[in-house]
Design a protein that fits this description.
Layout lengths: L3 H10 L1 E4 L5 H18 L11 E4 L6 H5 L4 H11 L4 E10 L3 E4 L12 E7 L10 E3 L8 H8 L13 E3 L6 E5 L4 E3 L6 E9 L5 H14 L2 H4 L10 H5 L5 H12 L5
Antiparallel strand pairs: 1-8, 2-3, 3-10, 4-9, 5-8, 5-10, 6-7, 6-9
Length: about 260
């Protein structure tokens, strides 16, 4: 449960850090599921350190990842930040390569894009020079968000020289940030393992719903973009909701209404 101060911190600066949210046993499970799932999904293109690998982790083969979105440590925080009707989008795993340039995941204008919170957790220790997440505080709101979009590339700065907050992280730590925040990483290895859980704000108007449907169409292209053509973003077993979870079913129904599920 977040304090009022934490909620204000998130909405003002755009992020929160939760130290040691995962215990040692959970981290061991995460490692095991991560490696097995990545190996199985990319048999056709084993990781060689040149291209990022990305994989939704929502099937019966990865039960910890699959059930993590319903974990109260994540879902309750998302609900406190964006309302009880927030809906889950994806639980995924990534193998990053090299630096990641400054960018927001979503547009700041709610008539053009949806928005939400991304919980990110690294499986190795990361700091300013080894690929830690960097954020520009307050960049999830205008005028700063659009000022950066218009001017950042013209400043001629290296990623590491742009003023920002470095989210130094140890295994077990989790960073939650508004997906409209500008973020980057610098100095990471060629096998930087990071996983995320994403929740979206529930659109309230027809214009916001249209923007969210546009995002759904964009998200649907992710498997092909990451060299897994024909793969589904949502595992059929997750959509079948075999445990009868009321929370998951509410998410599934909303995902279907907003055309994330086709």
């Amino acid at each position: 449960m977040l304090t009022e101060q934490q909620i204000k911190h998130f909405h003002t600066l755009g992020f929160l850090i939760f130290r040691q949210l995962f215990n040692k046993d959970e981290l061991n499970t995460i490692h095991t599921e991560f490696e097995a799932a990545m190996q199985a999904a990319y048999r056709h293109a084993p990781f060689d350190g040149t291209h990022r690998h990305w994989l939704p982790m929502m099937g019966p083969e990865t039960p910890f990842f699959t059930n993590l979105p319903e974990d109260l440590r994540f879902s309750e925080v998302a609900e406190q930040l964006y309302g009880d009707d927030v809906f889950f989008c994806v639980s995924d795993a990534n193998r990053y390569v090299g630096n990641t340039g400054w960018h927001p995941d979503h547009n700041v204008d709610p008539t053009k894009d949806c928005y939400g919170v991304k919980f990110a957790y690294y499986l190795e220790s990361v700091d300013a020079n080894s690929g830690a997440l960097r954020l520009i505080p307050g960049s999830h709101k205008n005028p700063l968000h659009d000022d950066l979009r218009e001017n950042l590339n013209e400043l001629g700065l290296e990623i590491c020289d742009v003023p920002g907050y470095v989210c130094k992280s140890e295994p077990g730590d989790v960073v939650a940030f508004d997906m409209r925040c500008w973020h980057a990483s610098w100095g990471g290895s060629d096998d930087r393992r990071m996983c995320t859980v994403v929740y979206y704000n529930n659109p309230k108007t027809p214009i916001e719903e249209a923007a969210t449907r546009d995002r759904a169409r964009s998200n649907a292209k992710s498997p092909e973009h990451f060299n897994r053509p024909g793969a589904s973003l949502y595992d059929p077993d997750w959509v079948a909701n075999p445990t009868g979870s009321e929370k998951r079913q509410r998410w599934i129904d909303r995902l279907r209404e907003l055309e994330f599920l086709q």
